[in-house]
């Protein structure tokens, strides 16, 4: 706890002088991350002659849009001081439910409704366990993660669902205008909505308050449990949306769909500058982090780097981005002494 | 508290006994001593890992990289054995423990020096270690014919009627019991998870305690890496994928509080055995192995609900105390 206390203090410390708005902006995590994104972009375009091409870049966005949709909701959940590790399992379950429904001949609107309601239902289960039964979210969602994916395994075993209606493919493979895919447009729209909700509404304010001091939030009359429940519901819904997009893009469902995504999504959120201890973070940061991760994995893909080696880069990215500010702060502290 | 814990472990013993008896009615051979010894042997690796995980959880941390550590170490020793068949077996085992300890120490150092939350550190090293296993092997498998017979046979070596693998698990249970209840490190582990503020005032270095807990967990994962590879006679990158969750589940079922400071070696052992019995019983009573994941999910959630009831303080709590929030961190 001692380290947690010091971390909180460091975050809440108020400097004597704020500095000019420009210097504050330049020193912010989002700008730093944006710089990283630009560097990776330039490096990619030098590394591969195929990189700088509108269609190629459009393809690259598929690498992160689905994960980023969940990451927005996950960011709010982490800011409030909880976590949901079952998101990828919710995708698997929602996708399985849609697959089973498609087998029975249900049309596209029905499939989407099923996918979203399975997501909501799973979110409601997590939310009930965490906010009503007051259990630690990290263990609860580890449990529901194997429960949700387990149900997919029971249903599917080693089989797969294919045979989705032809117009279902639009969500994952369709384009709205020119190179802008449906998924990418949805990603942008959701980013804007989440940005407004988190940074410009009472609800968002309350999320930050709970994350910074749950005790004080309770005394201020904020319905802590209700907000946490809503956030779990929201995370479930976003996982449902991601399941629709992913299933539509792949055109098939296996129980191992989206395996390990929970870690990538948490990485994306933390890389985006959201404090894993809760109470701080921005949607803009998560958006840029999504681009960074998408560009890194896509760039490495163009260089024929196998997926599992990319995961090393993602892991290193996660640790270094968190470690770097801490190391810098410590060096500053030392030099002041 | 002590009474409650004792009570809880007895309860778990009762549940496991009931389960075994119940399965025995469906499959007559299930409760024979021979089959029970088999189940124990099957669960040995989980027991070893769960004890390491438990030490880490006691300090209010979590180690999600154990299975990746196991995969890397297992791959490393299997490749060494395949490349240099002359290498003495004892050296390989020591190397496995050593490599595992180094990987664990890396986690520990990141937690101790940089104060990065353990879940983030091990989430990162989880992917890094497994990636390293791929880089090391180039994605290739090490198959049984490439490994030396001595390397493969060690865990199967019968000693007094039980395979050596079972004896190792028993030995490590005893060792961990000694370490956690009879050494200053053990006390420090409980103290730094149970009440970190008080621990600091008592002169306990929480960071250092966590570092050693992670190193210990890593060393046990390394040993488990060798045992896994030699027992299943194959090493590949995806060995034990997702097994870290089983170790956490064993701890949670065994009554180790995820908030740190509460739990016993017997609890972790019984938690692992509980999972082991279920895993072995499913095919026997004719339930598809695909159902296993969902069942362990339900068991984990049920165990958490049960733990929370047992840990809840008496009296009405109007406002939850601040301590509850740190659980998720």
What is shown here, in short?
The complex is a heterodimer of chains A (337) and B (329). With 337 residues, chain A is an all-alpha fold. Chain A has helices spanning 2-12, 21-26, 29-47, 54-61, 65-79, 87-103, 108-132, 137-156, 170-173, 182-200, 202-212, 214-219, 224-250, 261-271, 283-302, 307-336, and strands spanning 175-177, 180-181.
Question: What does it look like?
Answer:
The complex is a heterodimer of chains A (337) and B (329). In chain A, strands 1-2 form a two-stranded antiparallel ribbon. In chain A, a hairpin with a 2-residue loop joins strand 1 (175-177) and strand 2 (180-181). Chain A has helices at residues 2-12, 21-26, 29-47, 54-61, 65-79, 87-103, 108-132, 137-156, 170-173, 182-200, 202-212, 214-219, 224-250, 261-271, 283-302, 307-336; strands at residues 175-177, 180-181. Chain A has one domain (66-336): ABC transporter involved in vitamin B12 uptake, BtuC (Orthogonal Bundle), CATH 1.10.3470. Chain A is built from 16 helices and two strands. Chain A is mainly alpha-helical. With 329 residues, chain B is mostly helical. Chain B has a single domain (2-309), classed as ABC transporter involved in vitamin B12 uptake, BtuC. Chain B contains 13 helices and two strands; from the N terminus they run ααααααββααααααα. Chain B has helices at residues 2-26, 33-58, 66-83, 89-112, 118-137, 149-153, 164-182, 184-194, 196-201, 206-232, 243-253, 265-284, 292-311; strands at 158-159, 162-163. A two-stranded antiparallel ribbon of chain B has the order 1-2. Chain B is globular and about 55 Å long. The relative contact order of chain B is 0.19. The model of chain B is unreliable at 321-329 (pLDDT under 50). At the A-B interface, helix 1, helix 8, helix 12, helix 14 and helix 16 of A face helix 5, helix 9, helix 11 and helix 13 of B.
